UniProtKB/TrEMBL annotation, chain A:
Stated name of the protein: Oligopeptide transport system permease protein OppC
Cross-referenced SUPFAM superfamilies: MetI-like
Transmembrane segments: 36-58, 168-192, 227-247, 286-311, 334-354
Any single GO BP term: protein transport
Listed PANTHER family: OLIGOPEPTIDE TRANSPORT SYSTEM PERMEASE PROTEIN APPC, OLIGOPEPTIDE TRANSPORT SYSTEM PERMEASE PROTEIN OPPC
TrEMBL record, chain B:
Keyword Chloroplast: no
Protein name per the record: Unannotated protein
Pfam families named in the record: BPD_transp_1 (PF00528), BPD_transp_1_N (PF19300)
Keywords: Cell membrane, Membrane, Transmembrane, Transmembrane helix, Transport
GO BP terms, alphabetized: transmembrane transport
GO cellular component, one term: plasma membrane
Family annotation (PROSITE patterns): ABC_TM1
Species, as recorded: freshwater metagenome
This protein's record includes keyword Cell division: no
InterPro entries reported for this sequence: BPD_transp_1_N, MetI-like, MetI-like_sf
Membrane spanning stretches: 99-120, 132-153, 165-186, 198-220, 251-269, 309-336, 356-378
Length: 370, 388
């Protein structure tokens, strides 16, 4: 536990020198000193990088099923897949004259120097065609199956990375939708009060009455493979109530403050007061809740996938991976462990970051938990 | 108090009405109840029959009215298989209620105990580990945890029961747990020296290992049947046996689903209790009580804990209403014939509107009722509310 003070010793005349910091600087400073939150942030950023950049360079594609079915249920390993890593392939070269010509091709070497007379292909270069036809080919890739493979030989590491991408994307979209809706509704209710407040808050209560998962499940029946983006809209559209209530409470107290009165006295419009004067003062709870709703959304998407509604195969999300593989647990446990651990680590990190942000935005906190 | 209840009821009843209309429209547009029938050959008659029972040829508001007037008399209609929904619903509610009630009791007791200790000993080793465990439970997908529990809590445990015995590692682990527990118990006051805590820990270690040895001796040379169930809530083999074996079997089946639900709620309750307790512990009246010379125990339990409990009780009441509809996943993993099962049956390929409506409306009523209960408890416990 360390005490952070905004003081630095300078000269002998002044025992200390007080440095002026803006509110934002203070918040950032407090957050940077929150060790757990910072570690979580780094881990989360690394995972996102791995998911979005790593998936592009990884030797396998998440959806492609290898040609030979001997690949099913590989256990995770750090070594090359046995008996398959053959960058030098013997392939039949289609020619105009003799269909029986075969040659070896080194997939990892630069473009071939020899050309075979009469070889056909779209571009005339049969080797380029061959490689273009099988990008990141399972049957040729030398990459180890870090997380093993599933029953049809799809690489679980590639799938997990793809799932992380999807889950993160969905969760962030949910957070944006629900926060935007919640802030607008809460702000309108808290600022205008009266009948608008009554109507909006009754509406909030109404939506809270029906279970979130049930509504999502009923609506999610219509989601097909191409329309995965409907899922975050549904989850966000029914997840704004908590934020709306918090922002309403915040606005009810803010609107009585002197600076709002001053703004009103100087003739500012309601829109200007809400967006220029009050919202910046409510930014703390908004950011904290938006962060925490990312964590909630990842778990909600997982639950939806479990009910068979969500991202559809061949596309995957972390939730769909775990629910697809749950029956394999006793025989092929890695299929269940890795995506599940990814979910836990992501949600844990997001929650820790949210906690750190809450502490950072709390003006009463000048002690920082180390 | 009566006025408060009446006022809340006057808000709740119209809200339920609006809710039922919205949910009805939602379900009506969610899918085609005839979808599976259409594909089948010679299904004209079946289609005509289902159209007639569900009034599908009538406009939606007339359909709603027909459904609503029947529902008011407790008649939820018949499902797509032609069975009455009412009895199915009551049975499902009974099963779900057992699980939810047991898990709530478990979660509340554990959560409040751990939350209070965490708050009183803020930033201690106990606080850090308890917080971490809650965060971990909070981050786990429900069914992921449920499947793990099924494998390690039931299958492996049942295997172990067939030839039970505590290994050396087991002795050490349980002993360490015992040591931690006793040293925490005896060293709870800050004034207790490190040496005495250490002695308490060693004594605890020795004591638990001794108990383990006895248990181990007792367990050896006996075989047990596979007690923990993972499917349904009873085993048909016990149907004709006496009360005690049946109860034992039932508890064996309830154990895992109850644990799953309890663990998730526990995470929330312990963190909420901790926050609430920390807030009251730093309140002025607690400082006053300490300054008066009230004993620490009385300060914590009589002054701080009572006030901290108010928001917790309301959160528990709200949760209880919500979890009733939210046990869908746990029930599915453990194949329990509860509300969640009912709902999943309703969402088959051809949606079963009556069944889905029965589930949704019962859940909504539950949430509203427990909201009301939370309000009443809050008003009862917090005198400031009544003067509002």
């Amino acid at each position: 536990m360390s005490e952070t003070t905004d003081t630095t010793p300078t000269t002998q005349d002044h025992e200390f020198d007080v440095k002026a910091r803006t509110q934002a600087q203070l918040v950032v400073r407090r957050f940077l000193h929150h060790r757990l939150a910072m570690i979580s942030l780094v881990v989360l950023v690394l995972m996102a990088l791995l998911a979005f950049a790593g998936a592009r360079v990884w030797g396998y594609d998440h959806a492609r099923i290898p040609q030979n079915n001997l690949e099913s249920y590989n256990a995770p390993s750090l070594t090359k897949p046995a008996g398959r890593c053959r960058p030098i392939e013997t392939v039949a070269v289609p020619t105009n004259t003799d269909p029986g010509v075969t040659t070896t091709v080194d997939r990892l070497a630069p473009a071939p120097t020899t050309t075979i007379a009469g070889a056909t292909g779209d571009t005339g270069d049969w080797r380029a065609d061959f490689i273009a036809k099988y990008p990141r080919d399972h049957d040729l890739s030398c990459a180890p199956h870090l997380f093993g493979t599933n029953q049809v030989g799809q690489d679980l590491f590639a799938q997990t990375l793809r799932g992380t991408q999807r889950s993160l994307l969905i969760a962030i979209m949910v957070a944006i939708v629900s926060t935007t809706l919640g802030v607008l509704i809460g702000a309108a209710a808290g600022f205008f009060r009266g009948w608008l407040d009554a109507v909006l808050m009754r509406m909030t209560d109404l939506i809270l009455t029906v279970p979130y998962l049930a509504v999502a499940a009923v609506l999610g029946r219509k989601v097909s493979g191409d329309t995965w983006w409907v899922i975050p809209l549904i989850l966000g559209g029914f997840g704004w109530m908590g934020i709306a209530r918090i922002i309403r409470g915040e606005f009810l107290s803010l609107r009585e403050k002197e600076f709002v009165e001053a703004a009103r006295a100087s003739g500012a419009t309601s829109k200007r007061i809400i967006f220029k004067h009050m919202l910046p003062n409510a930014v703390g709870p908004i950011i904290v809740n938006a962060t925490l709703s990312v964590a909630g959304a990842i778990l909600a998407e997982t639950a939806l996938s479990f009910l068979g509604l969500g991202v559809k195969s061949p596309d995957v999300s972390l939730g769909s991976l775990v629910s697809e593989n749950q029956t394999a647990f006793s025989t092929h446990p890695w299929l269940f462990w890795f995506p599940g651990l990814f979910i836990i680590v992501i949600v844990l990190c997001v929650n820790f970051i949210g906690d750190g942000l809450r502490d950072a935005f709390d003006p009463k906190q000048n002690r920082v938990r180390a | 108090m009566l006025r408060l209840i009446i006022r809340r009821m006057l808000v709740a009843i119209p809200m339920l009405l609006v809710c039922s209309v919205l949910v009805f429209v939602l379900v009506a547009n969610a899918g085609d109840p005839l979808e599976a029938l259409r594909g089948r050959p010679n299904s004209q008659q079946a289609i005509a029959q289902r159209t007639a029972t569900l009034h599908l040829n009538k406009p939606i508001f007339e359909r709603y009215w027909l459904w609503f007037s029947k529902m008011l008399h407790g008649d939820f209609g018949i499902d797509n298989k032609g069975l009455r929904i009412g009895p199915q619903l009551w049975r499902a509610m009974g099963t779900t209620l057992q699980i939810v009630l047991l898990s709530t009791i478990l979660a509340v007791c554990l959560g409040i105990a751990v939350g209070v200790i965490s708050a009183v000993r803020q930033y201690s080793f106990f606080d850090y580990s308890a917080t971490f465990v809650s965060f971990l439970f909070y981050a786990m997908p429900v069914f992921w945890f449920a499947v793990l529990l099924k494998v390690f809590g039931a299958i492996e445990f049942n295997n172990w029961l067939e030839n039970p015995g505590i290994g050396t590692v087991g002795f050490l682990l349980i002993g360490l747990l015992g040591a931690g527990f006793t040293s925490m118990l005896f060293g709870f006051k800050r004034t207790v020296s490190k040496r005495r805590r250490l002695i308490a820990g060693i004594a605890g270690f020795a004591g638990t290992v001794l108990v383990c040895l006895l248990v181990d001796r007792f367990l050896a040379d006996r075989t047990y049947f596979r007690w923990i169930g993972t499917v349904n809530t009873t085993d048909p083999r016990f149907a004709h046996q006496g009360f005690w074996p049946r109860l034992g079997d039932h508890l064996g089946h309830l154990l895992l689903p109850v644990t799953t639900l309890a663990v998730i709620s526990y995470a929330g309750y312990s963190r909420f209790t901790r926050a609430s307790m920390l807030e009251t512990l730093s309140a002025d009246y607690v400082r006053t009580a300490r300054a008066k010379g009230v004993s620490e125990r009385a300060v914590i339990f009589k002054h701080a804990f009572r006030t901290a409990l108010i928001p917790i009780v309301t959160v528990v009441a709200l949760d209880f209403g919500a979890i009733f509809g939210g046990a869908i996943i746990t029930e599915t993993v453990f194949s329990i014939q509860g509300m969640g099962k009912l709902f999943r049956e309703a969402l088959q390929k051809d949606i079963d509107p009556n069944k889905a409506m029965a589930y949704l409306i019962v859940t909504a009523i539950n949430v509203v009722v427990f909201n009301l209960i939370a309000d009443i408890i809050y008003a009862k416990l917090d005198p400031r509310i009544r003067h509002e």
